[in-house]
Amino acid sequence: MTTTAPSSNVTERLVQVGQIQARVLVAGTGDPVLFIHGAGGLWWDPFLDALAEGHTVYAVEHPGGGESDALTHLPGIWELVLFYDELLDALELDTVQVVGHSFGGMVAAELASNSPRRVTKLVLIAPIGFWRDDAPIPDIAGIPPETLPGLVLADPDSPLAAMLIPPADDPQALFEAAMRMASVLHFIWPIPEKGLSRRIHRLSAPTLLIWGAQDKLVDPVYAEEFTSRLRDSRLELIEGAGHLPQLESPDVVRGHVLDFLS
């Protein structure tokens, strides 16, 4: 997926967090919601539009996802979590609801575990963060681009498939995709288990888990790993969706999320 420029109703803010300049897209009015994206990159999609109808949405580009040296200042997941905590300070958001997808879900869970009083509600969409030998998560660095739609989409022939693969004849798009991938692999390679299982007991926010029933990238069995460890959670398994349920079944997911955050 490509990183998009903000549309007319979305403003772009550059926020200095220590030595890192964070790119944040902001839209909407109401209680604040922090959105943390997955490996596909930051782009303003209809799901964020729906969130912005009743909330002020802050969608943050992962450090290193653009042309910057941010990753040199963030050697591991702990520093990344502290970056997000400091970013919330810079945005003057004492408390916030957080929505995270995939790798962004892992970061959101880590943030809520580290700062349980700061995160009031949590939505995790197909999050990573745990590891099961009986359901290994594929190494995204080694996935051939042409096979990606079959892993993340319930229908690999849907129009969404074209959004997942940068054009082979577009060097800039290929470079940007490589940068986005590197910004995620920096924190999760070789496997995404970085200690969340030792920290998640601190997470106190009510949590909604959204999972595509046909997710072949992060098997829905991982939902059990989260619900078994969370104090207050509920799971919505979305039929006819894979790893991108918010885009594959937008009406269903939007209904669950907006009802939960209201």
TrEMBL record:
AB hydrolase-1 domain mapped to chain residues: 33-253
Coiled coil: none
Matches recorded under InterPro entries: AB_hydrolase_1, AB_hydrolase_fold, AB_hydrolase_sf
Keyword Hydrolase: yes
Key words, A-Z: Hydrolase
Signal sequence range: none
One of the record's GO cellular component terms: membrane
Domain of life: Bacteria
One MF term in the entry's GO annotations: hydrolase activity
One Pfam match: Abhydrolase_6
Protein name, entry field: Alpha/beta fold hydrolase
Organism encoding this protein: Pseudonocardia bannensis
